[in-house]
Amino acid sequence: xxxxxxxxxxxxVVEDNLFIRSLIANSLKTLGVGRLFTCEDGSEAINFxxxxxxxxxxxGTMAIDIIISxxxxxxxxxxxxxxxxxxxxxxxxxxxxxxxxxxxxESERVAEARELGVTEFLSxxxxxxxxxxxxxxxxxxxxxxxxxxxxxxxxxxxxxxPYKGPDRRVLTDKSPEVEIING
Amino acid sequence: xxxxxxxxxxxxxxxxxxxxxxxxxxxxxGYKGTGEIPAExxxxxxxxxxxxxxxxxxxxxxxxxxxxxxxxxCVDTPEKRRSYYEELRRIAHDMRGQGGTFGYPLISExxxxxxxxxxxxxxxxxxxxxxxxxxxxxxxxIIKNRISGDGGDIGKQLLQSLDAAIKKYEGRT
Lengths: 183, 173
Fold this sequence. Notes:
Radius of gyration of chain A: 17 Å
CATH superfamily of chain A: Response regulator
Oligomer: heterodimer
Order of helices and strands of chain A: EEHEHHEHEHEHEEE
CATH class of chain A: Alpha Beta
CATH topology of chain B: Four Helix Bundle (Hemerythrin (Met), subunit A)
CATH class of chain B: Mainly Alpha
Distance between the termini of chain A: 26 Å
């Protein structure tokens, strides 16, 4: 098993709560993340991501590798940030891994974030182990991105599980309605 | 036109990229398996979290006092209760996600309850404001006495007395 070195990683942490923000930033730093950037809410994060695109020297990084964002923030919350990252024409990287920190346990809200293309959830309260497990998942198990008329984001099927009902997935890689973009 | 009709429109695009992050983390040698973060770094991060946890009671005390201020405003200026509730709810939301991380799950539990009692459809009566106060008082006790974990018997008693306060005032709302 390889020992990962996160020294070349740039991570953006978006969290309005000072204490939690500093906790996450400290944890990531200790885990070896090379460059950390923090924002207090979604609008600050959007401005920062735009700056990275327009003036990387000023932003202090050429790119962001992972976004870790709280859900409930004001005025622009984590969902609005996620929507911007995945769908907005000005978005700097629509494929960036997006880890949503959430205190909500309600499943319909989780489904809402999934529909918008979230990569992972980190639920509060969290442990260091939970943080690095999410990082490892992003690094080790990236999923293909799916773009349809109703969805853009990481493939929502994480695993192949036996399913007895009718298979509604009528399209395969070979179907003419499917285009595969490798990169 | 006939040719266009034969070629169905693309309905799904799959984007499959090579794993750039893994290259960054493990080197460009094309490592195939899964990786680990060095154990000593994890241990250090755990220690840093423990260090921060020590500061948590002081930090959260300030939040509890801010809630106390909002409660007093609810009493003094009843016509503005809605906006004070919103602030209380915001603080409760922050707290419910933190307590458990820093070893105070009871804080999370009580703030979760307060969060529910300050929602958009919450009662605005004086009795309801008393229920809010009971929550703030419970949190003061937890932090003052550093009741971490589930608090054992004291924790149980505390939650029971909060429940009793809720029932008492709820009956009157």
